[in-house]
Amino acid sequence: MKTMIKLSHIHKVFGDLHVLKDVNLEVGEGEKLVIIGPSGSGKSTTVRCMNFLEVPTSGKVFINGTEVTPKNRLKVIRENTSMVFQSFNLYPHLDVMHNLTLAPVKIHHKSEAEARELARHYLQVVGLENKANAYPAALSGGQQQRIAIARALCQQSKIMLFDEPTSALDPETIQEVLDVMVKLAEESNITMVVVTHEMGFARKVADRVVFMEDGRIIEEGTPDELFDHPKSERVKQFLGKILNH
Q1: N or C terminus: which one in the chain shows less Cβ crowding within 10 Å?
Q2: What is residue 122's predicted lDDT score, i.e. its pLDDT?
Q3: Residues 201, 32: contact at Cβ < 8 Å?
Q4: What pLDDT was estimated at residue 243?
Q5: What is the band of 244 on the pLDDT scale with cuts at 50, 70, 90?
Q6: Above pLDDT 70, what percent of the chain?
Q7: Contact, 219 vs 175, CB < 8 A?
Q8: H helix or E strand, kind and range, residue 47
Q9: Rounded to an integer, what distance in angstroms lies between the CA atom of residue 200 and that of residue 120?
Q10: CA 3 and chain centroid, separation
């Protein structure tokens, strides 16, 4: 399997805080990787280092075989990755269609007609084709996040990164976003890395689950291995609390 993401000996330090401590991780083409762990464990920083939103203090990041550097990062990241954030980051002054077509036209040099066709297709994928002319303020949180996923899909990236995409949503709308992500995972060959607290989603979608704590990867395995037969006491303890065993 081709390696799409490789983190090699990644350290990240913010002032006195050593957030990532020698993180080594590879993600294969089409793999669905889910990162779990307690708050403050370094999950989000790990995924943000993958696309150089956070520049590692030391170590190397490779995307689709190319080492990412401060010089080439815009080109490499734009060509290969898209990201869905906790807060939806939609442009409030643009309607949904313009939110979706902006990057394909400006960054990927598609024609307006091509970009609109793409946008209509991915609005259908996320079940919101009737919202093309709506503005973000008129949408619920769950709808805004589904639009954010459609916007990421419009970039037609090989890699999609999700940083706790449901954490800003109320419980009623979490499921509608997870349903879209499950569909995406099952029907596409996109490489997905998802940071989440949603264990049911992790079990259903992941090819591999990584557990992080204190800036380190403590354990990794298939959902069955990690959820049903965790090796480390810390993972057992964490899952015991979360899954109410």
Answers
A1: C
A2: 95
A3: no
A4: 74
A5: low
A6: 99
A7: no
A8: helix 43-50
A9: 30
A10: 17
